[in-house]
Amino acid sequence: MNKYVVGIDLGGTNVKAGIVDEATGKVVVSKSIKTNSEKGVEDTFDRIANLINELLNEKNIDKSEVKGAGLGIPGPVINFETVTFFANFPWERNLNIAKILEEKLELPVKVGNDANVITLGEAWMGAAKGYKNVLGLTLGTGIGGGIVVEGKLVEGFTGAGAEVGHIKLEADGRLCGCGQKGCWEAYSSATGIIREAVLRLRVNKNNLLWEKINRNINELEAKHIFDAAKEGDKFSEDIVDFAARYLALGIGNLLNVLNPEVIVVGGGVALAGDFLFDKVKKELSKYALSVTLEGVEIVQAKLGNDAGVVGAAALLEI
Amino acid sequence: MNKYVVGIDLGGTNVKAGIVDEATGKVVVSKSIKTNSEKGVEDTFDRIANLINELLNEKNIDKSEVKGAGLGIPGPVINFETVTFFANFPWERNLNIAKILEEKLELPVKVGNDANVITLGEAWMGAAKGYKNVLGLTLGTGIGGGIVVEGKLVEGFTGAGAEVGHIKLEADGRLCGCGQKGCWEAYSSATGIIREAVLRLRVNKNNLLWEKINRNINELEAKHIFDAAKEGDKFSEDIVDFAARYLALGIGNLLNVLNPEVIVVGGGVALAGDFLFDKVKKELSKYALSVTLEGVEIVQAKLGNDAGVVGAAALLEI
To answer: I need a labelling partner for B106 at 20 to 30 A (CA). Which of A27, A281, B96, B157 fits?
Structure first.
């Protein structure tokens, strides 16, 4: 009888592995180690396998009780096994990572893109549990996304499904970190919102936000902007309105394409809560067809810090 | 042994039914009658069932040789059976059309949105045969779309999946027939392209296009614009560039969201051929991430006038 599933969140700096209870989606135990990708693929996955074996021993879990391991990585993944390229690691292209880890771990392994699996985790045991058509958004440094259609993750032909942060909301608009212009994340990610605030603060410092950051632009975080706006600072609320308008534009476009039943929003920007999302919902009717707005729910992500591990584990579950 | 499948294309004015050979996707026989939706649902489907029985008799095909009937309709469809509302007919909401026709026809029936099933048909036996991740676009009066992921049609939660003509490419941009602003089809459909030409012709009549339409704005069709541009008319080529830029912007956004392996483009505007699509492809690298452009093919639709019937039949096949 399977009772557990392993989830691994492979990041540029750290890799976090956890043992997840299949019935509840709760993390029983987890631990992080340095990724040290420069030591090579074999070395990294040897250490990951050792880490998992150590966690299993610690909890007296036999491998016969483990269904398998899911792995979320920062890069495009195809067939739930092959990473076409690693954005941040000096590893070769088209590596069958599932096979590499399966041999070391002696368990079935499935691999997914890290942004995609976060949505999968929310659909398995989080805010979208029980829903079959889910759009997940993570509003952080960038905008990540994941799409679940009829319970299945949309990987995409080259593993780049749901790169929604790079849909263009302005032709030849603001420069994005990807090198292209007008990307959604250049407007509505934490980075995009901070950029807009910096631009505005250059011409107007007579506002609460400027005081909140101690008149030091380097202290500025998205949270300051939302906090000042909630305290009635018109200057800051205008910036929130700017972000909300682009959030509605991007979400509206995705509603018209995918017509999901629920949108799960996570990441730092989502912590602004209803203050932000009430504004987004108000704007949405301008951009989404009414038929795609019917009955759709916009909810906050639930998995928090465990999202990467639980999401990776979900690769084995749905 | 099943050898045939019925396809029905239900339009506002006419309904066309055809018998399709399962092995080849070819239409063996087809016939159109008036829809006359004002006579009511029962009357319309009685006449459709009679039409199909007549076609089967004509070809001496027994119902035991027919797998079932697919029906494409202009409206949102859920569970391949229920039409949530009819855009053009005075029929009630949430009708289980599959059940209504099944009883009359004594064959299994599946229902799909008309724009969606065109893509399904191309994936079954047309330009996208053999592909599992397909985006279909029909550039005509509007822009219709269909999305196939892992061989399955994306219906959407309320049946409005792939309403891609209404993604917004300009916030608060040009007014669209849907009542919203900035929709893709307000720029790159035949209607959108003609509108742009009309606007430009009001201020400049010193061009080949004006001569081609016999100095009569009412004669203007999209074809005139493409023809004049191909003959070297700079005024007309600028309009084509305008349409191509918005086509690339819309297609680029869909590539970043869906990462399909093939895009099938049909409809009147697609007849402009490589002259238009070479321009679109050139612009695409500004809007689509390079990973979503890798290996993707953009091809012309193949099913032509049979697209509606063959697409509807495909509902039973994939």
So the answer is: B157
